Prior knowledge:
By secondary structure, the protein is mainly α. About 75% of the residues lie in helices and about 0% in strands. The chain has helices spanning about 10-35, 40-65, 70-80, 90-95. The two termini are about 15 Å apart. It comes from Chryseobacterium oleae.
Amino acid sequence: MxxxxxxxxxxxxILAILEGISxxxxxxxxxxxxxxxGNPALVKMMGPIHGTLFLLFLFNTLSVGVEQHWxxxxxxxxxxxxxxxxxxxxxxxxxxxxxx
Length: 100
């Protein structure tokens, strides 16, 4: 895992995983706690964290795409689209980012 920190693509992969985990936490733990248990504390904490990771993933995707000369129609749009589809970041990491 440490080797991923040495490259921009590696850091993008880490962001993809963190963004996916934050969405899982938000959807399957925080939101049920808010509505079933009446405790919105975790949503208030995880919402901004997930939003920040989402934006970091978007900006880093664009940055890596420009730096690596990705063709927008072949790679960049797929990686960007992944963060708009629930759990898409896990898929895109295994299908595209891990092979770069």
